[in-house]
Amino acid sequence: MKEHIKKGDVKIGSRVRELREIRGMTQKMLADKVMVSGSCITRLESGETIMSIFSLIKIADVLDVGIEKILKDYTRYEQPATELDRLVRRIKKLPLEKQKKIISAMEQVIDLL
């Protein structure tokens, strides 16, 4: 039988809590960055409620992970996040000129190897 996401989901909430704690963030810090109330994060982490997919994507972005990391029990084709994936996400957030400089520097390093 297929498993469905319930109104409140303990797996998603506990994963958000774990990722938040690894990054040394409080619930309030995460809530502020996602622009929701602190009680919303508390209810999410305790499994009392589930947030919209848009809010979960924002949480994943703030926690610097792919959304699949938070929804891993509900995605079919999970790809483990690699260090390179994490760096690519960070680079994509930079202005285009800085992205070009990083790519140029990386190409020079690869040529040296």
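The record above closes out task 2.4. Task 2.5 opens with a second protein, given below.
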Amino acid sequence: MLSDSKIDVSIIIINYNTSKLINNCISSIIEYTKGISYEIIIVDNNTENLSQTINKQNFPRLKFLQLPENMGFGKANNEGAKLATGKYLFLLNPDTMLMNNAIVILYEYLECNPQCGACGGNLFDENLKPVHSFRRIFPSIFWELNELTKYRLEKALYGENSQFNHKDQPMKVAYITGADLMIRKSLFAHCEGFSKDFFMYYEETDLCKRITNNGYSIISVPKAKIKHLEGKSYNGEDKNNSFNEFRWRSIFESMIIYYSKNNSKISKWICLKIAYFTLLLKAYLGNNKNKQIFKTYRKIIKYNN
């Protein structure tokens, strides 16, 4: 067995009743990851006994961390990073499966490009269609105007490459989705990891913002390909377009936290007002779910004023 000092990548997976998915994820890691040393750290948000639900026989170099409570995405990753011994951290969603030697591709990119602080690959759905892998812009007034215009501003600037890299070359982006984010462990520590202010949503955006503020770039590496069964790792909205209040409350609360941390007071006020108008318009023109989303946002805004 390799000593800890020779670990290249520490793969951190957060579990929330997703051990069946994680077993498939681990199998894909073992199948495709060749040429580097790695460890897998699975952090459970107080949902399962991992020693009973994860098949450790397939990969004995597993570390389990059972948290005493549900700490959310960012803080759970922070706890996992404390156990990590690799040069790089690879934050991987449990509802993902590698499609190629993606971890090595991202590792080699970081090795060869010291100005890159973090990177990620292209994500595909279960039908192998491109899905949200990154964004080219950070949340801002432009972001909210872009939401209001149904992404027309972003598409005008970046075309088909606004959230998925259709180019055959690395591309600078604002942030990589937290489903497959690889970062230098030393930089993660320097940035003090994910902010403890977030429970779920916007935490990877905030981290990537701080990485860029430290002079590093965030890069999409399209040759790294990963299947993302988006929404399977949380109790999300089903195919009948049902409404999940907890999810939307988490989104809006995290949005307010992000703007409070990264924008001026006037910019935050404008962003939240544009978001209010956008959601109001969707509620007026849309279905019952859109109306419930708007009501939830209105409650959150009222509570935070």
